[in-house]
Amino acid sequence: MKKLLAGIFSLAILFSLAACGNENGNGNEKSVKSESTSSQSHMEMNHSGSSNVPKGMKEEKNPKYKTGSQVIIHADHMEGMNGAKATVKAAYATTVYMVNYKPETGGAEVKNHKWVVQEEIKAAGKKTLKPGTKVTLEADHMEGMKGASAEIVSSKKTTVYMVDYTPANGGEKVKNHKWLTEDELAVK
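Above: the chain's sequence. Below: its structure in token form.
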């Protein structure tokens, strides 16, 4: 009986992992409407992360959404994100970048990844980087991102938010998701 239950449990886990791996065949980042042409699965994105932020990040003194605010996400960086209910964990004043990068772990180039902040780009300094600038990423939002060569696609000075949210399509709660911009959130 124990062997039968162990077998059933193992099959259930296997089917769950297989289903997750096939949820989004065109990558975990969708481009400007559908951000990525990469073949990477959203499984490779760090769904939950550390609350640690890069050195030099400055908290926004008067953010539109204060820590603890309940908000709705209007972004589709990951499967189940758009329409999800979230809690703001922190807000920072910075410059955010959409980038194209080639993962250090190999595989297809990730196009139009949202978002990497100024403080997650090696030797970025304080000046806003122009589209086309070649950089090295220090962010580790996705497998193979840290140390990857990248190109700036666009930039904007804004407030970025770290949030906890439960995917709108169900699933485990995502903690400390980095980053969402102010225009990707709305009052609940």
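Confidence is low (pLDDT under 50) at residues 2-46.
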